[in-house]
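Hi V.,

You were right to ask for the full record rather than a summary. Here it is.
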Amino acid sequence: MPPPRPLRADARRNREALLSAAREAFLGADTDAHVEEIARRAGVAVGTLYRHFDTREALIEEVYRQEVDALCAAPARLLVQHPPHEALRQFLLLLVDHAAVSKGMALALESIMATDSPVFDNARTQMADALTELLDAGTTAGTVREGVTGPTLLRALGPICHVHAADGWQAEARQITTLLFDGLRFGAPRTT
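Predicted structure:
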């Protein structure tokens, strides 16, 4: 099967406008935004939305996928800017912030949870791989303890990042994440 043809410039602009409008709606207070409203915000017709995304769920998936892609691109940048242990610390805090953003999208995401969409499995794999990259860099530098895998660390963060019930949960989640990070440093050959 040949690769899909690249989008024309106007189609690419429309697609990006739709994703931006949907991101704004889903990550903001309007998590139940209808396709008509998203198309209106993007300045396009509903038919244009459906030319790019077969369903509202496909649009939600793409917004979430882009959020995860942006998050998981951070380790490469962080490792250039910081020592490995600091890059890991900052990424752990970014994961907490991502959970806060995902909370705004939670209602929208519920509509695809019952489908066979691989979006959540793919997101978990990407996040675990990003953590593995940072853990490997830290253990190589001797500033992070050995024997912890990306998937294990992601599992440990799950309960921390999904306690949205109480006011101030994000500050508490960041504090608990810092304690978790301190544990990752304990027993490292050398700490800086």
